[in-house]
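[READ THE FOLD]
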Amino acid sequence: MEISNKRRLIIAVVVVTVILLAIIIALVIVFTRKKQSKPQPTKPAPTPTPTPKPILPPPTGPPGADGPYKHAVVASDAGPCSEIGRDILKKNGTAMDSAIAALFCIGVYNMHSAGVGGGGFIVVYKKSTRFVEVIDFREEAPGKANRTMYVGGAMSSRQGATAAGVPGEVKGFYEAWKKELLFNDDGELKKRGELLRMPKFAKTLERIRDDPDDFYNGELAKDIVQDIQDGGGIFTLDDLKNYQVKFRRPMNGTVGNYSWIVEAFKFAYAYRALLGDQDFANVTEIVKNMTSPEFAESLRQTIWDNRTFSDYRHYGDFYHNASHEGTSHLSVIAENGDAVSATTTINLL
């Protein structure tokens, strides 16, 4: 039976259409598989993670409160010092009053981490004006320091009087406020819970209380210099007299949720190895690059909402950081919303 030309045309059109559809479907499958199998150097495929069961029930606060802190909060690495800071706030002290009181306490309670012989940084936030400032009171090298002073004595840069820097803690606390050990007499190591008495240090704190400038310009300064020089150090009275606290404007930006902030902090901790003291090293270009939108976007691509990375190299692997000794951190939020965040240290002990 002969097939008319019209029917032949219809059959041909149907066959061609089916072939085209098959080709299109095949191409879609191929490209989809390629896209799925394409390596993602900056975004490893996320793996489902089970929701961990909380070890403790979440804290509960008074009805209508956002958290367990009804008025204010003080968080330090020593419970009694946090309580001192809290009591200062209860007596209508400011966030800075609270922070300084707690930090002096830490110098007594955790003398291996911080104290008047060290220095640090304070970040101050004023809620009423939304003003933020950094107070830099890190230690400085003595005036007689030089490039070769540690040659031939590797440990002299870490131990003994020659390792001491000009302390900034007392002046840092004083300037911030104005603007707004281990052994018994028998040689045995003290046991947990034993009372540790430091009468000379108590007297030093009394002298600082009565006159903070005495630490840098008075009899206390002379005592400090004498102790350092008796130990072979190179401190002079001029080093203490000339010490200056620095007030800096911090970098700022807008961040997302808490998990993103925590992940971003991990990158910041790694990339700090590329920075240095801006008073002596030119880090302008490095800071410019680190704060560029392009750099931020490159890091954002490596942050996932549903996982973190146990391999530290994911966050940056530049230099090996030696173990860190002697650092203390304190955070205070006053009832009026002002906040103080301080990190202090006596460095190596």
Q: What stands out?
A: The longest strand covers residues 119-126. Residues 34-65 have pLDDT under 50 and may be disordered.
